[in-house]
Amino acid sequence: MSALLLLAAAPAALAASLANAAPAPAPGTGPDTGADTGADTGNTSSIIVTGRALPDLPTSAAYEVSAIDAARIEQVPSGRLEDALADVAGLQLFRRSDSRAANPSADGFTLRGLGGNAASRTLVLLDGVPQADPFFGSVPLTAINPAQIADIRVIHGGGSGAFGAGAVAGTIDMTSAGASDRGLVTGEALIDDRGDTSVSAGVAPKLGNGFAVVSGRWDRGPGFWTTPVSQRVSASAKARYGSWSLALRGVTQVTPDIELQSRIAAFGDAQTLRYAQALTGMSGEDASLRLVGRGPWQFDALIYGQLRNFNSMTLSSSTTLPVDNQYDTPSSGVGGKIEIRPPLGKAHALRLGADAREVTGYESEDLYTKGAISSRRREGGTNDDLGFYAEEAWTIGILQLTAGGRADRWTIRDGEIQTSSLAGTTLTDTRYPTRSGWTGSFRGGALLHATGALDLRGSAYSGMRQPTLNELYRAFTVYPVTTLANPNLVNEQLRGIEGGFDWRALKGLRLSVTAFDNKVDNAIANITINATTQIRQNVPAIHAHGLEAGADAHFGTISLGGSLAWTIARMEAPGQAYDGLRPQQVPRLSASANAAWTPRPGYTLGATLRHVGVAFEDSLATAALPAATTLGAYASMPLAGPFSLVLRGENLTNVTVVTRNSGGTVDIGTPRTVWAGVRVGI
């Protein structure tokens, strides 16, 4: 089924599911309560409509897992999703800027110092649906309204079940909020000291045997200067931005133990990056249908479609004339999965499944010489992945063992790069042969409940990631440095081990420590050729090892949290100039700490302190990104009725955070920003 057909069918299915919803069930069996009933007992009267996935199996217990709840997402200084994810040890975007001032094609996540080049080495899921852009592999952060998220689980380390071919560095698993999580009507409107505004709203009525959630967000503003004063010219401009997102989700009970989950969404994102005419934008539409069975034979069946487009105008930093206009990048992603969980008794938990994803995209661009269009270029292709997976957890008293494997049939096909004159005459037309193969991966581990307060865990895993269409075929310029594509890139392959403990030292106090050793063979990175040219290449290996620690505590009205990642990462490429050097954008040390005080319901005062160590923009470790420590704050208090006052503060000490250092041209991150507004909740 094509993406267009799915996008057309999903709204009808959603409307039908809500219109035909059965009458509300008897007390105790009603719609969403926000609870998870766990494994099914065979008594269908205990099953409720949650809008969630099947409960997690013990298969993830052996791996390091970080959790972020809705309250924490709400209380981060910026109120943005990437800010909440920065709580997690070692999790980082490719660059340090957030989605208001970063090219959306660069918003890729990684973990454990494995570096990257803006494509996400971390699998990002929302209600089971992969969120990576079909062409770029980045994550469209402005498409996801933080207010619609109930919780986030970050599984560190490679390997996964469904869609695991992208989980080289880990998995970010997000779950949408249901009706009871949100309340009937919610909303927030804020303005900052520069005149930027942010508005979000949602309604979540319970309808018959289910519920619907309609949510939207709109952010806009004049932005801030990302160009240092010393580098500004007459064409320089603040990082203006405007983004919006809208999502409709419906959940209904089809039978006593089967629920249908439907979602359609759309978003748009427009930015000005560095110069007044350097306009960048991304837009998209999503749709998905999911059946979740909670009976004795549990199952999860999903189908989804994504449409995306991207545009970007690049100007020269020396002449401010156009260099490249990537004016049209249509892409699509379609896929699905089916997973079953046979009833094997309390000691065993088994999941068997298959998943598939196809992504297609082509970019059209105008190339300029001395500010005038000189030629045109078109590039793109199609990538496929079909995966089969199985994973089992076996409980033997205080010991839990888990083992699983995947087999992926991958294909890279229909790749092409064409150039033509302004008159339409073909100058070059290069077609690339189809490549395909099978790749196997595994993960396994053990968890020992050593005492009532101490768990010991260890695991080993492998994984695979295909190069994205962007990495294979698209060249781009962040002036003055041009990065060349490489149609001959091969798949990345990960091998890793980890071990650690989770200690509940006191009631309300938890400490987690993990040591890891990960190695990615054929890691794709931007390799420096000279001062103005890079090329995407397969580095023989990126090897990273280190420690990650996390802690949280809850003592009455006070909540504390923190994380730390210390990572030694090196590129291994004997005979190359970058051999032994640190991967791009990877700091050795990063840390985060937060505190919140809630003296009584509705009143909250919180602070967040973050540190990121020195990193480098280039593969030769010459363009430094200095270390930075930032402080943010959050406060809320009731006003009248359902209304509350909300205050947010970002980078309150006004530290200069260098986010890019390319050929001597520098971008800087968010300066001191203070927000004020109101929130409503009914």
Care to describe what's here?
With 682 residues, the protein is mainly beta. The protein contains five helices and 38 strands. The protein has a 27-stranded mixed sheet that branches. A five-stranded mixed sheet has the order 1-6-7-4-5. It has a two-stranded antiparallel sheet with strand order 2-3. The longest helix has 17 residues. The chain is globular and about 70 Å long. The two termini are 40 Å apart. The N terminus is likely disordered.
Largest sheet: 27 strands, mixed
CATH homologous superfamily identity: TonB-dependent receptor, beta-barrel domain
Q: Could you say what the CATH topology is called?
A: Maltoporin, Chain A
Percentage of residues in strands = over 45%
The count of strands amounts to: 38
**What is the overall pLDDT average?**
90
CATH architecture: Beta Barrel
CATH class category name:
Mainly Beta
Low-confidence parts? 1-12, 15-46
Topology:
Blueprint: H1 3-19, E1 65-69, H2 70-75, H3 81-85, E2 92-93, E3 109-110, E4 122-126, E5 129-130, E6 149-156, E7 170-176, H4 179-182, E8 185-192, E9 197-203, E10 206-207, E11 210-221, E12 241-255, E13 258-272, E14 279-293, E15 298-315, E16 322-328, E17 331-341, E18 348-369, E19 372-396, E20 399-420, E21 426-431, E22 435-449, E23 454-465, H5 469-473, E24 476-478, E25 481-484, E26 492-506, E27 509-530, E28 533-555, E29 558-572, E30 589-597, E31 604-612, E32 615-616, E33 624-625, E34 628-640, E35 643-650, E36 658-662, E37 665-668, E38 673-681
Parallel strand pairs: 4-7, 25-28
Antiparallel strand pairs: 1-6, 2-3, 4-5, 6-7, 8-9, 8-38, 9-11, 10-11, 11-12, 12-13, 13-14, 14-15, 15-16, 15-17, 16-18, 17-18, 18-19, 19-20, 20-21, 20-22, 22-23, 23-26, 24-25, 26-27, 27-28, 28-29, 29-30, 30-31, 31-34, 32-33, 34-35, 35-38, 36-37
